[in-house]
Write a structure and sequence with these properties.
Two copies of one chain form a homodimer.
Chain A: E1 4-9, H1 13-24, E2 28-34, H2 40-47, E3 52-54, H3 59-64, E4 71-72, H4 73-79, E5 82-85, H5 91-105, E6 110-114, E7 124-126, H6 128-131, E8 140-143, H7 146-162, E9 164-174, E10 190-191, H8 199-207, E11 213-220, E12 226-234, H9 240-248, E13 253-256, H10 258-261, H11 266-275, E14 286-289, E15 294-296, E16 299-306, H12 313-323, H13 331-341
Helix pairs in contact in A: 1-12, 7-8, 12-13
EC number (chains A, B): 1.2.1.59
Organism (chains A, B): Staphylothermus hellenicus (strain DSM 12710 / JCM 10830 / BK20S6-10-b1 / P8)
Subcellular location (chains A, B): Cytoplasm
Chain lengths: ~350, ~350
C-alpha cells in the first residue's frame, strides 16, 4: 500500500515534533515542511534531511542566507494528501482560505489544524480518546490545544467507564515554552482570564458537547509543564483502585506514584524524561499523580501534568490516518502511533 | 485604663509586622522584642526605638557587634501581659515549655502562637471572623497560617450568611517570601503534598471543626502572594450580586474588579499597594476577584489572593485583646484593629 504523503506548514514547537513523528511512521511519508523565517530551524531540518518549502515572497530571504528551498507552499501542497497546519495560532485560517480550501473542495487535499485556531476552521475538533470515529467523515480536523487535550484524555476515559456528572477544573498554566525568552510572568500568578469559566471549558465542549464542565485558569512562572487540579462528580460511586486501574490501562495516560518514585513536581517528571533519553525530553502522555487521586461518594479529584510541547503529537498522527481513511482506523492507528512513539513506557 | 503590655518573641517576617501593628494600637504598649540573631533586623528595631531582648547565651554575640540588648527573654516576660510567639515554625512549642507555661500557670502571662505550630500548642486555634468569642475563655491562642486565614475569612463569612455544604479548594502557593534567597522551586510546579487533602483542610477544621473541606496544594515559582481557587457548594442557591455584597461588607475582604481596574495578577495587586504607599506594601486583606465569582444552582466558585507576609497581622492584634479580656471584645476590637491599620481601604 502506498504511504500517506504528509506536509507540515510551520516548523515551530508543534510542527517540528509532528514532522519527526510523521517521519517515524511506517505508513507515512514526510514530503516536506513550510517555513517562512530563515533561521536555525532551517539548519535543523536540513541536517535531518527534511525538504523545506516557503511562501513565494520569502524565497529570496532563504537564498540570501544560502538556505536551499525545494519550492513554494503551492509546490508542496500538490505533492501531499494531507497538510498539517502548525502555524502560529490564528494563521491557520489565513492559510486555509488562501491555499488549502480550493484543493480540499477539489478532493485533492485534507487539512489538520491546531488548537490555536477557532473551532470553525475545521469540520470537527478532535481527540483520539473521545471522538476518533468522527474523523472518518471529515475533510479537515482541528486537534485541540495542549490543556484541552490533557483534560479530554482523562475526561473521556472516565466518562466512558463511569459517566461524569460534572467537571470543575483549575488549570495552572506554564508561562512560556522553554525556548521563549520574551514571555512572562516572571514573578506573579496571573489570572488567565480573571473570570470563570476560562476558554478551556468551551474548548472541551467542541469535542464532547454534552459534558458539564467549567474551568478556572491561572498562569505561573515556569516553562516545563501545565498542572491541572481536576475535580469531578461521577454518576456513580467508584472504588479508587478501580479508577487507578482504568486510567492505567491507557498508553497515553501514565499514573505515577509520587511516594514510590519521588516524582512530586513537573521538574522531576522532565528530569526523568531526560534520563530516559526521550527525544527532546518529550512527554506526550498525560501524567496523573496516583497519590493525589481522591474519592468520596461520587466525588473524584486528582492532579495531573501536561507537557505543552508534545501532548498533541499522537493526536495529530491519528488525525492523519483518520483523514486518509486508513484500514482499521481508529484502533489500529492508535496502537501503531503508540507503538512507534513508545507511548506509556514512562518509568513503568 | 492601662495599656496591654505586649512582647514579641521573634522579629522575622511575621514578628516584625506584629510589632509595628502593636506599636500603632492606642490600647497596647510594645515592651520589646526577642531576637536570637544579631543581624540587620536589630538595626531596624533600634532605629524604630524598639527594645531588643535575647536569650542568655546570645547576649555576648549581640554585644560583640556593639548591639545593645535590654536583657534576657526572662526579663521581657516579667514585664508583659501577653507574649506573641513569632519564632520559626516548631520553635513555639520549645519556648512554650521552657519559658511561657510556668508563668501562664501562675496567671502572670498569656501567649499567642503562629500557624507553624501544631494545634495542641495552644488552648484554641483562631480566626477573628470564625471563633473570636472563644478567645475570652483561652489563656493561649494559635493564629492559623496565612493560607488557612485566607480560606477561613471567606468560608466563615459565607457559612454564616448562607451555610456551606462543602468546600473543595486548590491552593497555588508562592515558593518563597521576597527576602528568602535559598528556597524554590525556581522553574517547576511542585505538589505540596502530592496527595489530596493537603494539611490546609485539616488546619481549617482546627478552627471550624464541622466544615466539610478538602484541599489540594501546589507550589509555584513566585514570591508575592498565594492564589486560591475556592470551589464550594452552598446549602441554598444564592444570587451572585448578593454574594458580592456580602463579601464586600467586611473590611478584611476586598472584592476587586479585574476588568475595571486591570488588576488581574498578584504582581498588579502588589504594585497597587506600593503606589498606595502601604507600609512594606502589605495587604492584610483577603483579595477576591469579583470577575471570577461563578454561581450556578448551589455552586459557588471564585479566585482569591493571600498576602502571606501580612494577612495574619489583624488576627494577632484581635487575639491579644481577646486574651486581655478587653471591654467590648470582639466587635470593638475588630473595628479598632481595622481602623488603625486602614483595613479595606484598597482601591475603593
Amino acid at each position: 500500500m502506498s504511504k500517506i504523503r504528509v506536509g507540515i506548514n510551520g516548523y515551530g514547537t508543534i510542527g517540528k515534533r509532528i514532522a519527526d513523528a510523521v517521519a517515524r511512521m511506517p505508513d507515512m511519508e514526510l514530503v516536506g515542511v513550510v517555513k517562512v523565517t530563515p533561521d536555525y530551524g532551517y539548519l535543523v531540518a536540513e541536517q535531518k534531511g527534511i525538504s523545506v518549502y516557503t511562501v513565494k515572497d520569502r524565497i529570496d530571504k532563504f537564498r540570501g542566507k544560502g538556505f536551499k528551498v525545494e519550492g513554494t507552499i503551492e509546490d508542496l501542497l500538490e505533492q501531499v494528501d494531507i497538510i498539517v497546519d502548525a502555524t502560529p495560532g490564528g494563521y491557520g485560517s489565513y492559510y486555509k482560505e488562501k491555499y488549502y480550501d480550493e484543493l480540499i473542495i477539489k478532493g485533492k487535499l485534507k487539512a489538520i489544524y491546531q488548537g490555536g485556531e477557532k473551532p470553525d476552521v475545521a469540520d470537527i475538533s478532535f481527540n483520539s480518546y473521545c471522538n476518533a470515529e468522527e474523523a472518518l467523515e471529515a475533510n479537515s480536523i482541528r486537534v485541540v490545544s495542549c490543556n484541552t487535550t490533557g483534560l479530554l484524555r482523562a475526561i473521556c476515559v472516565l466518562n466512558n467507564a463511569y459517566g461524569i456528572e460534572k467537571v470543575r477544573a483549575t488549570i495552572i498554566r506554564r508561562a512560556a515554552d522553554p525556548k521563549e525568552d520574551k514571555r512572562g510572568p516572571v514573578n506573579s500568578i496571573k489570572l488567565n482570564p480573571p473570570k470563570i469559566p476560562s476558554h478551556h471549558a468551551l474548548d472541551v465542549k467542541t469535542v464532547i458537547p454534552n459534558i458539564d464542565i467549567e474551568t478556572a485558569a491561572v498562569i505561573v512562572p515556569t516553562t516545563l509543564m501545565h498542572v491541572h487540579s481536576v475535580y469531578m462528580v461521577l454518576k456513580t460511586r467508584v472504588d479508587r483502585d478501580e479508577i487507578i486501574d482504568e486510567l492505567s490501562s491507557y498508553n497515553r495516560i501514565v499514573v505515577i506514584d509520587a511516594e514510590k518514585t519521588g516524582i512530586d513536581s513537573t521538574a522531576k517528571i522532565v528530569e526523568s524524561a531526560r534520563d530516559l533519553l526521550r527525544p527532546r525530553y518529550d512527554i506526550p502522555e498525560l501524567i496523573i499523580w496516583k497519590d493525589s487521586i481522591f474519592t468520596r461518594e461520587n466525588e473524584l479529584w486528582f492532579l495531573q501534568a501536561v507537557h505543552q510541547e508534545s501532548i498533541v503529537v499522537p493526536e495529530n498522527i491519528d488525525a492523519i490516518r483518520g483523514l486518509a481513511r486508513t484500514d482499521g482506523y481508529p484502533d489500529k492507528s492508535i496502537r501503531l502511533t503508540d507503538s512507534v512513539l513508545g507511548m506509556g513506557k514512562f518509568l513503568g
